[in-house]
Write a structure and sequence with these properties.
By secondary structure, this protein is mostly helical. Helix content is 77%, strand content 0%.
Length: 254
């Protein structure tokens, strides 16, 4: 109960800080919106090999990948916010509080997850005029899977920020991790279009199964094995990422 209460308190504080600077949500929407409006229309013919025979089919394949890329890439760069707090002494001052050290991490990570879900809903709504349709239950499960991805990526990023003390060092480290994860998960184009060796490599990437699960849900295949495999693997990886990052967090401010 104490962990839940402390997490809620930290989460409320972080939401208040985010509400004071709503421009960050708008900025976060700009790039995916450009991809949605300018890149996705080019995919109808390119995705024909994957079973997309219309613009609506192309968007049902592309939007889940775009949202997944937003979760992974956006989440992995949230560590820079924690670095700023470390340099400003905000984290150090937390030593004198009775708040759970795990809650200090979870409250911040849940703030990033909330911002992502707001962006995801807005992008899905903007894609409706292009023919995107998705069932309510399917959408809720897709958002849950997306939230797990964002929580996992944010936790990993916070852990890296605690290990890498400077912005100049953290950037290359995050890029080295983010690019293979994104490319081997088929966020922009389905891995089914890739050579056999690349499909084999992608199968070892947990983010790949999350993206496949998202695409199955947007296609209305709630009972597809990709959905439950994606939820299970992403949930497991999220739990491990949170545990690892929380341990580093507790060691830093105990």
């Amino acid at each position: 109960m104490k962990l839940a209460r402390d997490t809620w308190l930290v989460y409320q504080r972080q939401l208040l800080l985010m509400a004071r600077s709503p421009v960050w949500i708008a900025v976060g929407l700009l790039q995916p919106l450009c991809y949605l409006l300018l890149f996705a229309p080019l995919l109808t013919s390119a995705l024909a090999a994957s079973g997309a025979h219309s613009t609506a089919d192309a968007y049902r394949m592309y939007v889940p990948g775009l949202l997944s890329a937003l979760a992974v890439m956006g989440g992995l760069f949230t560590g820079f916010t924690l670095l700023g707090e470390l340099h400003a002494g905000v984290i150090e001052r937390s030593r004198v509080t009775p708040v759970s050290r795990v809650a200090l991490l979870l409250g911040r990570a849940l703030r990033e997850t909330t911002a992502l879900l707001i962006q995801a809903v807005l992008i899905a709504v903007l894609a409706i005029p292009f023919g995107l349709t998705v069932g309510f239950t399917d959408l809720l499960l897709a958002l849950a899977l997306l939230a797990l991805m964002a929580l996992m990526a944010s936790s990993v990023s916070y852990g890296l920020a605690l290990l890498v003390p400077t912005d100049a060092a953290l950037g290359p480290v995050v890029n080295t991790i983010a690019q293979p994860l994104a490319l081997l998960s088929g966020t922009l184009l389905p891995i089914a279009l890739a050579p056999a060796w690349l499909r084999t490599a992608a199968s070892w990437n947990p983010c790949y199964w999350a993206v496949e699960g998202m695409r199955a849900l947007f296609a209305g295949h709630l009972d597809a094995p990709e959905v439950w495999r994606g939820l299970l693997l992403t949930g497991l990886m999220t739990a491990l990422a949170v545990a690892w990052s929380a341990r580093l967090f507790a060691q830093r401010i105990r």
